[in-house]
Design brief:
177 residues; single chain; alpha/beta; 12 strands; Rossmann fold; seven-stranded mixed beta sheet
Length: 177
């Protein structure tokens, strides 16, 4: 039996997500037996990026208006600068993220993904990492920021960048299982 058989995981993203930070975790989750839904504010497709260049578009499985944290066993927040910055302005996205924390369900965020956790009010007192430019934002919100490949604090998994993806995916699967 696979580690995540019977589990359904939401990947919350919008235009501007970092391609590899969505693709690799989704592949790892599916390989571990999970059902994965790409959740976005709007239906259709969302545009990925490979750093500053446009990447591939990814189909949206569910919109924020159609889902609840109750539908899922875990949440993944990929990075990319544009993606989390846009999601921070979406009340439904922040409420969706906050509902996972309230229900004590696991959340995995990489690179710029942890930015949304500040708006959801769930970083205070947490040990975590991120892309270096978020260090002060996270510290100002009460997090203990560390420069490590992957940080697991209870049911919160964070990593710094695409180079950390192997450790991030392993940590995410371990916590989601």
């Amino acid at each position: 039996m696979s580690a995540l058989s019977g589990k359904t995981i939401a990947v919350l993203a919008t235009d501007g997500f970092e391609q590899v930070e969505l693709d690799k975790p989704v592949a790892a989750l599916r390989e571990a037996g999970a059902t994965v839904h790409i959740v976005a504010p709007e239906g259709g497709e969302i545009q990925g990026f490979e750093h500053h260049d446009k990447g591939d578009k990814v189909g949206v499985d569910k919109t924020l208006g159609d889902v609840s944290a109750d539908d899922y066993d875990g949440l993944v927040l990929p990075g990319g600068v544009i993606n989390p910055d846009a999601l921070r302005l979406e009340e439904k996205a922040i409420a969706f993220i906050g509902a996972f924390a309230k229900a004590d369900k696991p959340i995995a965020a990489i690179c710029h993904g942890p930015w949304t956790l500040i708006d959801a009010g769930i970083v205070k007192g947490r040990k975590m990492t991120s892309w270096p430019s978020l260090k002060v934002d996270l510290q100002n919100a009460g997090a203990e920021w560390v420069d490590e490949t992957v940080v697991i604090d209870g049911k919160l998994v964070t990593s710094r960048n695409p180079d950390d993806l192997p450790a991030f995916c392993d940590g995410m699967i371990k916590v989601f299982a």
